[in-house]
Specification:
The complex is a heterodimer of chains A (259) and B (259).
Chain A (H helix, E strand, L loop, with lengths): L5 E12 L2 E12 L3 E6 L5 H9 L6 E6 L2 E2 L5 H8 L2 E4 L11 H12 L4 H14 L16 H13 L5 E5 L7 H17 L3 E5 L3 H7 L2 E6 L2 E7 L9 H8 L14
Parallel strand pairs in A: 3-8, 3-9, 6-7, 7-8
Antiparallel strand pairs in A: 1-2, 1-4, 4-5, 9-10
Helix pairs in contact in A: 3-4, 3-5, 4-5
Chain B lengths: L4 H30 L6 H11 L4 H23 L8 H39 L2 H7 L4 H38 L5 H10 L3 H27 L5 H31 L2
Helix pairs in contact in B: 1-6, 2-6, 3-4, 3-6, 4-6, 4-7, 4-8, 4-9, 6-7, 6-8, 8-9
The chains are: A alpha/beta (259), B mainly alpha (259).
Bound molecules: adenosine-5'-triphosphate (ATP) and magnesium ion (MG).
Chain lengths: 259, 259
């Protein structure tokens, strides 16, 4: 593979919280323009992995390279410059509750890129339209929206600056099946039209198949399988098989006790 | 777990030193970032309104009753050795040098320091601070610096208003209850007032403003967990700001004592 095309490259990334090892040596590469989906059980460290790549959490060991540049431990203006490449949809939405919906979406363009407010509002309303929200919604506050609407606003905010790299943490969780598919299409479109590189987290296998070129599965702090999406049914990996078919019986044991 | 007094003392000393260190680092970063562009003027104005304008009723009420009580109590004392004539000076000097800044500081710590900790704490636990970072906006510049700047600028103005209202309170009690001549009271108030009386109070107010905003932001920024963590941060912000105000008050008083 051509090294120049590698957009994101992780080597031996480790992260613990106290005694709890969450990431235990993650190696993964994502090429420019590619869309990777990470699957894995609840609490397996998927969100933590994205935050380590973004530099919101600092890994204890390992390297995170963006466009070949080492980003672990960089600060200040270097960090800000690298951050400009990213857009992130947080699992919980993380909308600014003191700002109106359109101001949330326009935040990046206005505060970070210096786009004048009227122009930024136009951009914001266009992005809201793309996620199926009418302009009236733009005047509301996040607390006045339903959970699914908040998720879509958050998606609109993540793509508002047309970033080179977009992370989607559970973009379709909490949406009805039709809207989920609209969002899937939108993600595919972002990756194709903007040529963006994407990493998404999802529990929804239909969505994973639709939006990804590659799939990686995380289990007990390691990526136990990665491969092209088309190969996922022939992985011959019992963990992957159990996960994609959603079976309670298998090598992955849930920490539950019988009632 | 041992309760041996020396162990306990050592542990508390270490915890205290750690706290002092991390607060100092936080303050340094806030000040350094605050002097760098971009300046978020809208944020500063919003905070000045919040700290100054909306605190006027609380601070005004505190000041007028304090002024009234001062006049009554000093009359009780001074009448015993026929020194009632000194009441106007006692009232105005106590207010401008001491009670104006300290009481306004404590009231604002309760009102504004708590609100800052709660707002920033909520932003922390709902990942809004992480979202700011991904939108290339430094949380120190966007959230912390405007609050520090606004508090340092606004508290002195608030204290000047409190001084005036407090003197008015003393005047009302002296003239209408203790039968002072109104013009003589005002003349005595002004004639014996020195520039340093007011100036030292204003300097105190600026320092207290800094401490209130610093503790509000620090506790909020470092809050953990959910609603409970935010609640704990709010309490810690008010308590630590109040203690710091009383401590710094002594050292500032000593610094101005020679003059
Ligand atoms: N800030 C933190 N402090 C302590 N532990 C944390 C923190 N963030 C995450 N963890 C722990 O790390 C583990 C992985 O969390 P993470 O949020 O990455 O899970 P996830 O794979 O995204 O799960 P889900 O699919 O439910 O969102 C969890 O066990 C969690 O308790
Ligand atoms: Mg998650």
């Amino acid at each position: 593979m051509n090294a120049a095309l590698t957009k994101i490259s992780l080597k031996g990334v480790r992260k613990s919280f106290g005694p709890k090892k969450v990431l235990d040596g993650i190696d993964v590469e994502v090429d420019a323009g590619q869309s990777l989906v990470i699957i894995g059980g609840s609490g397996s460290g998927k969100s933590v992995l994205l935050k380590c790549i973004l530099g919101l959490l600092r890994p204890e060991a390992g390297s995170v390279r963006i466009d070949g540049e080492e980003t672990v431990g960089i600060n200040g203006t270097d960090r800000a410059r690298v951050m400009k490449k990213f857009g992130m949809l947080f699992q919980g939405g993380a909308l600014f509750d003191s700002l109106r919906v359109w101001q949330n979406v326009a935040f990046g363009p206005i505060q970070a890129d210096g786009v004048p407010a009227p122009k930024a509002k136009e951009i914001a309303l266009a992005k809201l339209g793309a996620v199926g929200l009418p302009p009236e919604v733009g005047e509301l506050y996040p607390a006045e929206l339903s959970g699914g609407m908040q998720k879509r606003v958050s998606l609109a905010r993540a793509i508002a600056r047309e970033p080179e790299i977009i992370f989607f943490d559970e973009p379709t969780t909490g949406l009805d099946p039709i809207m989920a598919d609209v969002i899937n299409d939108l993600i595919v479109k972002c990756v194709r039209d903007l040529g963006a590189t994407a990493i998404s987290i999802t529990h929804d296998m239909a969505s994973a198949r639709k939006i990804s070129d590659r799939v990686a599965m995380i289990y007990e702090g390691k990526l136990i399988w990665q491969g092209a999406t088309a190969e996922i049914d022939q992985s011959n990996d019992p963990y992957v098989d159990q996960f994609i078919h959603g079976r309670a019986e298998g090598p992955i044991k849930m920490q539950v006790r019988k009632l | 777990m041992t309760l041996a007094p020396l162990t306990l003392l050592g542990r508390m000393t270490l915890a205290f030193m750690t706290l002092v260190g991390s607060v100092t680092m936080f303050a340094t970063q806030a000040v350094v970032q605050g002097f760098r562009p971009p300046y978020y003027r809208q944020q500063i104005v919003r905070q000045m309104l919040e700290i100054g304008y909306y605190s006027l009723p609380v601070v005004g009420l505190t000041a007028i009753f304090t002024g009234m009580v001062l006049a009554l109590q000093s009359y009780t004392g001074f009448a015993r050795f026929s020194a009632e004539a000194a009441i106007p000076q006692v009232v105005v000097v106590s207010l401008t040098r001491e009670l104006g800044p300290v009481l306004a500081g404590l009231m604002v710590a309760g009102r504004v320091g708590a609100a800052m900790a709660a707002e920033i704490g909520t932003m922390r636990v709902t990942e809004q601070i992480d979202a700011l970072t991904t939108l290339s906006t430094d949380p120190f510049r966007y959230l912390v610096a405007p609050r520090l700047i606004a508090a340092v600028l606004t508290l002195p103005l608030l204290v000047l208003v409190a001084d005036l209202i407090g003197v008015l309170g003393g005047y009302l009690v002296a003239v209408y209850k203790l039968d002072f001549n109104d013009l003589t009271y005002l003349k005595n108030t002004i004639d014996y007032l020195q520039f340093d009386d007011v100036f030292s109070g204003v300097v105190k107010a600026a320092v207290f403003g800094f401490l209130i905003a610093l503790m509000g932001c620090y506790q909020g920024y470092n809050s953990k967990g959910g609603a409970q963590g935010v609640g704990a941060a709010t309490t810690a912000a008010v308590v630590s700001a109040s203690i710091l105000i009383l401590t710094f008050n002594y050292f500032l008083t000593e610094a101005f004592f020679a003059r």
